[in-house]
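Lab channel / #folding
Pinned by the channel admin:
"Please post every new chain as: sequence first, then the structure tokens as a reply. Keep commentary short and put observations after the output so the thread stays searchable."

First post following the new format, from NK:
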Amino acid sequence: MAFHVGEEEATEEEATEEEATEAEAAEAAMEAAEAAEAAEAEAAAEAEAAMEAAAKEAAEAEAAAKEAAAKEAAEAEAVISWAGILRAAHDMTVARNTA
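Reply from TO:
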């Protein structure tokens, strides 16, 4: 009978060790899940920051393009204006020379 008592104690110790191992594994799994959630939240925050930066960059590029287009239009208008003035002067010179 002493053999059975020792065997039961050993079985209880093994069960206790298994429970402790399972508890440690469960705790490690919880910690891993929490770490995964934190990493996911950090990745989402980084993605949002990147999208905001891209939107800001796109807006700046659009503003620069509009400014460049307005400058080009003003320069073209000035060239057209000078061309008109030169054409009028030429016409006056031709009219004066033919008169």
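NK: The longest helix spans residues 2-98.
TO: also worth noting, Residues 3 and 9 are 10 Å apart (CA to CA).
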